[in-house]
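lol ok so funny story. i was supposed to be doing the assay writeup but got distracted and ended up predicting the structure for this chain instead. priorities right. anyway since i did it might as well share w the group, maybe its usefull for someone
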Amino acid sequence: MSMHTKFDLYTYWTSLISEINLQLDQAIPVKYPEQIYESMRYSVLTTEAKRSTPVMCIASCELFGGSCLAAFPTASACALEMVSII
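and the output, tada:
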C-alpha cells in the first residue's frame, strides 16, 4: 500500500523565511565601525533575497531525520546564505 503525502513547497518555503531572517539579523549585530556592519547587514538582510540556500540546507537536514533547529545556527543554513551573497 503506497502512502501519498501532499507537499506544498511554497508553504514550506515561506514558513522558514521569517526564522531565517531572524537568525541572520542576530548573526550580524551592528558593532564598531558601524558603517561596515550596516553594509554587511544591508547585503545579507535584503528583502529581495529568496533564501534558497538556507531553505535547501534545512530541508536536507530534515530529510535525513535532523531537526530544522539544528540547521539554523550561523554555522549552517545562515552561513550558507552569507556566503552565497558574495
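The two ends are 47 Å apart (CA to CA). The chain has a mean pLDDT of 81.
back to the writeup now i swear
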